[in-house]
Design a protein that fits this description.
eight-stranded mixed β-sheet, three-stranded mixed β-sheet, 16 helices, globular, single chain, 476 residues, alpha+beta
Length: 476
Amino acid sequence: MSDLIQKPAREVVRLLREGTETPTSVLEALRRHVAEADRQVNALPIQFFDAAAERAARLEAEIPDPAGRGLLAGLPVAVKDYNDVAGQRTTHGSPLFADHVATRSDAMVSVLENNGGIPYAKSNVPEFAGGHTYNTLFGPSRNPWNLDRSVGGSSGGSAAALASGSAWLATGNDLGGSLRTPSGYNATVGLRPTPGRIPRRRPAIPFDPLWVEGPMARNVGDVALMLDAMVGHDLHDPLTKPERPRSFLERLTTFDPPARVGFSPDLGCLPVEPAMRRVCGDAMKHFDALGADVVTDCPDFTGAYDAFQALRSHLVAAVHGGLLAEHRGAIKPDIVWNIERGLTQSTETLLSAERVRGQLFHEIADYFETHDLLVIPSAPLDPFPAEWTYPERIDGVESRTYIDWIAITFCVSLTGCPVVALPCGFSDAGLPVGLQLVGAPGQEARLLAHAQMFESSVGVAASLPIVPRRPEVATS
């Protein structure tokens, strides 16, 4: 693994701005690394390095001054295969869209490109949605820490590419935990921002706040850099705002440590394996070391599980329901079930879900009047075998649906809060364990600052990227 591949994104951007490296040289270094590493990990099944090289050459020719090439200065960026890059395939992991080629980049990707990012590959995803990254087009992505294990999902390809050095920055999106679970499973960092912070791809349900786009990287500082390069306003996304916030990267060192931190291993209502409870609980010592008052409490999440399932089914049916009549046999059965649930659930089910979401929002607002952070695990169990469809049982409790096992993340989606997912240690099997750091709505800058303090104390980020490991040589 070359020295350049191992450097943080911020350092590579510095070299690009100084002219020590060029967009072309950085892209070629990445091309060589991906050719080796991704044969094992399968994080980036759609690659278009030649098109990226043409874009890099144009950037160099049109803007001769390296310092004027935008926030990312020509840095390559991996894009999740739910998002459009002009001239490239967007498959959604589905045979129905295997040959679909986007005519233009979507809103979020366009903002990154305008800020000097160069897309070069698409990261693997589950078909349409889900917590485990596999599909019939490209197969499963594999966890670089143990190639037999899941990378999580649905931004699993992005997280695995980051962990294995095949990306410095990668896009993710998050409905029920899609960038948080993979960040925990791969020892990377992801941010689910406040809705409206980043423009979405011409949303079919424009006013829905559950689905957001977000940055993913190997460390908190690089996530802050990428967030700066993703923030924007788009007329097709009514949740976005024209006003641009101050730089999140520049504000990383402007906040005091958190004074009061709440920890819950299970949100008071969910099954979590004992080993995960132990590792996550032990990690709270890092907040102790920062001088925080660590307490074991959290808002009341009663009813959140059912509310999210109802609201998610409603959204999935609204977006994909039209596919069932003609293409039912070509759609993954779990997605068919989810669409049908949305089409058939009662009005009272939706009304109850909205009432629960409203009550939880007010609960969380009250909570952050006395707490700086809410901290919970990013997954209830270790990364599971990549061949599974989903974990069927957690701490003795049987899963009723294919997304039950990510309830620890999807319940938090209802709050509208920004969430940073990052590593906090390792399990007895040597696999990464992650935490979700939840902050008050709209407070990404403070949240990222607190996350960087925690990250510095934990020390896992310094180990990335890693060489993909076969199970027999995985760290224990």
